[in-house]
Design goal:
Protein Transport Mog1p, Chain A, alpha+beta, 3 helices, about 200 residues, about 35% strand, 11 strands
């Protein structure tokens, strides 16, 4: 009988120790400082064959309305644009993109105007199959183009208008959806001055 009582006492003590130890572990977990979290603001390294650079346009002369002319001899195009916009050049795999944007605003990450040159016909074809709308036949810079409207959701005004020019493998894309979207008269002026130089 004494053995049973000794065994019961031992079990009772073990249960008390487990309850007290578990309570201490829970209490200690709530009062300890949280473990440091990894810095998520670190930018990953850029992918291979990718770079971005600002294009110096400060010294380009402006017309009486403050518009400047940008000429790209490598890809053979020229256009007038509002002189307040900055230009950034990005090369990624089979594309080269020129982003015209307001340097004082981060409302439009893809810029107010983007001009993308596809270095292969295959890359251009893939871009054009990603759209569900057939587009409208227009002329840009003397070349046949497809004008397409892009919306974020049904029933909204177009957030983007693009002009795909197959003969040159170039797409001009105008932002229409952000806070500082390009206005129609500026878009029309840019399109009317856009021309191919080769």
């Amino acid at each position: 009988m004494k053995n049973k009582q000794g065994f019961s006492s031992l079990v009772f003590i073990i249960i008390i120790v487990l309850i007290l130890g578990g309570g201490y572990w829970v209490w200690k977990g709530k009062t300890e400082a949280p473990a440091p979290v990894a810095d998520t603001n670190i930018e990953p390294p850029p992918p291979v064959n990718f770079f971005t650079t600002k294009i110096d346009t400060v010294n380009l002369p402006a017309d009486q309305f403050g518009w400047k002319t940008y000429t790209n001899e490598q890809y053979g195009f020229e256009l007038k644009y509002p002189g307040t916009l900055s230009i950034e050049y990005t090369k990624f795999q089979d594309t080269s993109t020129f982003i015209f944007d307001d340097p004082y605003s981060n409302q439009s990450p893809d810029g107010l105007l983007g001009i993308t040159i596809f270095n292969t016909a295959e890359a251009f074809a893939v871009q054009n199959t990603n759209s569900t709308n057939a587009g409208e036949d227009v002329t840009v810079g003397g070349e046949k183009a497809k004008k397409k409207f892009w919306t974020i959701s049904l029933g909204q005004a177009p957030s983007e208008i693009s002009y795909s020019i197959p003969s040159k493998k170039i797409v001009l894309r105008f932002d229409r959806g952000s806070y500082n979207a390009i206005i129609d008269s500026d878009m029309d002026k840019i399109l009317s001055t856009f021309r191919f130089t080769k």
